[in-house]
Amino acid sequence: MGIPLRQHPKWRELRLTWRLLRANPTAMAGLVILVAMGAMALAAGWLAPYDPLRLSLAERLQPPGAAHWFGTDEMGRDILTRVMYGARISLRIGFVVILIAGGIGSVLGAVAGFYGGRVDNLIMRVMDVILSFPSLVLAMALAAAMGPSLNNAILAVAFVMIPKFARMVRGEALAVKELPFIAAARVSGARNRWIIAHHILPNCLNSVIVLGTLTLGDTILIAASLSFIGLGAQPPTPEWGAMISVGRKFLMDQWWYATFPGLFILTTVTGFNILGDALRDILDPRIRR
Amino acid sequence: MGTLLSIENLSVEFSNYQGTSSVLNHVSLSVNRGEILGLVGESGCGKSVTARCILRLIPAPPGKITSGSIRFAGEDLLSVSPKRMGRVRGREISMIFQEPMSSLNPVFTVGNQMREVVRRHRGLARREADALCTGMLHQVQMPDPEEVLKKYPHELSGGMRQRVMIAMELVCDPQLLIADEPTTALDVTVQGQVLAILTGLSRRRGISVLLITHDMGVVAQVCDRVAVMYAGQVVELAAVEELFARPLHPYTQGLIAAIPDVDPPADDAPGGGARPLFSIPGTVPTLIDRPPGCRFHPRCTVGGPGCARDVPGLCWVTPEHAVACHSSRGGTA
Amino acid sequence: MTPVIQTRDLVKRFHVPGGFLGRHPRRLTAVDHVSLAVRRGETLGLVGESGSGKSTVGNCILRLLAADAGQVLYNGQDILPLKETDFRRLRGRLQVVFQDPQSSLDPRMTVATIVGYPLRLQQGVKGTALEARVLAALADVGLQAEHLHRYPHEFSGGQRQRIGIARALITGPDFIVFDEPTSALDVSVQAQILNLIAGLQRAQGYTYLFISHDLAVVRHISTQIAVMYLGSLVETAPKEAFFRHPYHPYTRALIAAVPRPDPTRRQNLAVLPGDVPSPLQIPSGCRFHTRCPEVMAVCPKVAPPHVEMGPEHWVDCHLYG
């Protein structure tokens, strides 16, 4: 059906979201931080003053100064450069994990909530088992079992995040499936799978986006923690957690080494958290009406 | 029979991210001692907001009273101290709501909650309080009052809960009872009982009642006078017989004509009744798109060109009958 | 003439969790041996108070709920034993309009998608053909092309109910259940929707089951009327006979309890004592005996007889047995 883009209903909804975002200063602050981080990650190749892997032992462990704003590490690599490249890795980990965990978790939750009974019991008890471990410990165990690598770390973190999404979507699905429009779809001849895909999941999407945004911060933290103990990104990959891990040894005398990656983790996680918080309000249908 | 409550030129605004919208626009009405005033209108007409203003229960922000006065027994309720207001609420003016469940605490028994009210307002000992509660429940025709006192709210039916609410409010012996759609959530046969209780109490104890409803049938059966509201304004105010016999505002006329009839038509024509109901065209305007001029003019069938421009004021056509309409003022045009 | 829809001794029970840790679930009979028939082109008004089971009857006919016993005949064929896959072919022939126009439309779909839904799912109609049919259906209910790509929340309650009606009618169904379609609407809008529903029936010959608690509304729209009390029928009759000669004490009370918009004739509104008993504790014998103004010694003991009072006029009451 050919409708001009400007009148397309999805486009209008998006514009409303944007208007509400603009009216919310905290949300904008979060958004600005994240856009800046994203831009930095994308343009790292351009913006960064040095090569992140270039060794220069003559310049090792220099304090912040004109040549190296954030100082250098024990191999003489520029920390600013490595932090910028590190944003690529951390953000990628965050988004990939949320896509995997959000996708699988939402479908599991929707199926459990919609069908109820045994299916629900089976899925949710498995989720409970996963949840009963502290997420960091479980991710560590999994990553260790699969062998230390960035991709394995991503899979491990995604796995421990699945129950968060499954639990929330199940709750929403329980409420949505009782609404009359589900009955109306059934009367029109919709099958169960169709109803889950076309009614239940889309109606949980807003909550998934909010939870995803809020969880992204956690995800980056856990991934950084894995790298910190050597189970995630491997040196010399410029990953924030890995950098802190090495920098920790120099913390007493070369404070800048661990501090700057730490500050970036802090800023990014905060950005995602405040944006997620604001999105929860903005995407609330009661406010949009 | 004097005036107990008089609201004059009450205007209220609500603001949200989309801007400010006027919810009430120069609302004026009065409740006489011992009478039942019906406040009718459709969703969003401002009837509940008016009631909440009387008890200063509108949340501010987003709500804001921009003008007007509410005089209750000679006192301006909009300017009294919060402490005094707390005293007025419950003791002199009581309010019951559509959904009694939300006004009752689910974790305490009915007896617990009623005794609490009695003690707070009357300072009675437990045994005397119990006796008073039983008496009150008796007055609202509750079967087995002693048993009811031992029950939790969820163990009662909707009609019983509404009776408990009425009894609780009456404990304090108020002068004015505000009933906000008290029977809307109830079944027809139970609605009848609750309305009969309300009118009986009003007559016997001389309590004034402000009855908020959307049901013209309830108004006709229960009220002494009626104020009709539309889109934040009072459009017509009259004694109930007068209003149903000679509705002046086109909106009131439409409201009355749109009610489907239960009784068969007087002429004994079988197979009839298929004629369409009278209906007012269009829909009730929302808070943000209220039309200029007379707010009813886009849906009105008699209006002239002036209606889209000038806001009609409430004019007294007879000493008992006021209407806010350019066409019906003074009986003719 | 075979009725379009007929129920025979329809029974629906629910299990209510009860007792410590839900170990003693209680059985609630929401619909108890209900037999109804709706002829082509007619409207059966099904009246009752809360807990009467009137909506459950509608949901059982549509197979939104699985009936526990009895039959639902659609053009003479029992549809209850059909497998879900076989029954799906009949979906779209039996449609429904719900009470709450807000929650009966998926908030994330546009009007075009919502209204075209049954056609798309049933007949696989797509693209411009679908759009044309949707436009025609919208025109039938008084909406225009400009409304096509909007979301439900951009409409008023009355308009949303029109959208719901357009969705129900787009497949040209044989039978439509209206489950309290006007109770959430304002009086002035209620009249519009009732006129629309009645007008569509006159023009297209639709067959309706109209469920409502409001006798005045039912009187306006129905040709036949059935009254339910606590899960069973107490009186069924053609509309004229029903309002001229109501026999069952409950029917009489229901009619008398409607507040008339006439202040010169004040009614005694408290026509019945007490509340509707809980469906978990249905009284013995005649289930109305606890509130009946004409209760006799036999009523609490024996279930009332099913008596014919006139052409198609049936009453379940000991007064006439």
Short descriptors:
heterotrimer; A: 289 residues; MetI-like fold; globular; B: Rossmann fold; four-stranded antiparallel β-sheet; 10 helices
Q: Can you characterise this structure?
A:
The complex is a heterotrimer of chains A (289), B (333) and C (321). By secondary structure, chain A is an all-alpha fold. Chain A has a single domain, classed as MetI-like (MetI-like fold). Chain A is built from twelve helices and no strands. In chain A, helix 4 packs parallel to helix 7. Chain A is globular. Chain B has helices spanning 47-54, 82-92, 110-122, 126-139, 145-149, 158-171, 188-205, 216-222, 240-245, 250-257; strands at 3-16, 19-32, 36-40, 63-72, 75-76, 93-96, 176-180, 208-213, 225-230, 233-239, 315-318, 321-323. An eight-stranded mixed β-sheet of chain B has the order 6-7-8-3-9-10-12-11, sandwiched between helices. A four-stranded antiparallel β-sheet of chain B has the order 2-1-4-5, covered by helices on one side. By secondary structure, chain C is of the alpha/beta class. Chain C folds into two domains: 5-93 and 174-320, P-loop containing nucleotide triphosphate hydrolases (Rossmann fold), CATH 3.40.50.300; 106-168, no CATH class. Chain C has an eight-stranded mixed β-sheet with strand order 6-7-8-3-9-10-12-11, sandwiched between helices. A four-stranded antiparallel β-sheet of chain C has the order 2-1-4-5. In chain C, a hairpin with a 2-residue loop joins strand 11 (306-310) and strand 12 (313-316). The longest helix of chain C has 18 residues, at 187-204. Chain C is globular, with a radius of gyration of 21 Å. The chains are: A mainly alpha (289), B alpha/beta (333), C alpha/beta (321). Chains in contact: A-C, B-C. Chains B and C meet through helix 6, helix 7, helix 8, helix 9 and helix 10 of B and helix 5, helix 6, helix 7, helix 8 and helix 9 of C.
Number of strands of chain B: 12
CATH topology of the largest domain in chain C: Rossmann fold
State the shape of chain B.
Answer: globular
Q: Using DSSP, what is the number of strands of chain C?
A: 12
Strand order of the largest sheet of chain B: 6-7-8-3-9-10-12-11
Quaternary state reads: heterotrimer
Strand content of chain B: 15-25%
Strand content of chain C: 15-25%
Number of helices of chain B: 10
Order of helices and strands of chain B: EEEHEEHEHHHHEHEHEEHHEE
Range of helix content of chain B = 25-40%
